[in-house]
Amino acid sequence: MVTTHKRTMLSLVQRIVVMRDGAVVMDGPVDGVVSGNQVKAPPRAPANETGAAHGG
User: Fold this and answer.
1) How many domains, in total, are found in the chain?
2) pLDDT tens digit string along 3-19?
3) 38 assigned to some structural domain
4) Taking the complete model, does pTM exceed 0.90, yes or no?
5) 48 in a domain, yes or no?
6) CA torsion sign, 29 to 34 to 39 to 43?
7) Is pLDDT of 44 > 90?
8) What is the largest CA-CA distance in the chain?
């Protein structure tokens, strides 16, 4: 796993996860995400609903 904001690092990975405000907004192969054919991330439950399941 690599965490970066540098596009030059994309050659090191096969998949990109793009986050905005702590939420996954794009997830998919490098070519798909970069070219605009973005793979949508699966829907996530709001943080206030998952907190209780993880001890609070």
Assistant:
1) 1
2) 888 888 888 999 999 88
3) yes
4) no
5) no
6) positive
7) no
8) 40
